Amino acid sequence: MNEVIKNILTRRSIRKYKNDMIPQDIINQIIEAGTYAASGMNRQPAIIIAITNKEMRDRLSNLNAKIMGRPDKDPFYGAPVVLVVLADKNARTYLYDGSLVIGNMMLAAHSLNIGSCWIHRAKEEFETEEGKEILRDLGIEGDYEGIGHCILGYVDGEEPAPLPRKENNVYII
Q: Domains, the chain, ranges and CATH?
């Protein structure tokens, strides 16, 4: 079977990670795959914030958990790396373009034996004053909306088994 298709069929969302940090060259490969995602008219409106600093990772986790209504939970499941994707709202296809970035990064991570999971609430995070402050501190200006987080880490345990695909969701004409 083709390796790309094999990775698409075998990738799973991981919700338990080891504390071990991923080497920077592996993180860079995953990020680069994200930058090659398709985008409307090749506008490339998405940006990626790579967070490997534990203090910042925990700050973002706490903010996300508050928004989720579960301040005692780590919505990043212990993953040591968080790749935040935001996209410029001035591009008509920004939401789709940012989503494709995350999809590319999750597939790239899987191909490199790194677990990943898409975590929501980035939109709400970066609409808060704390989220806006984080962007200002990073020197990020513009009309960006949080699309999602791609958490990364080494899988702690077994990867989940695939669930059966839904029936009657493909129609060929």
A: 3-153 (3.40.109.10)
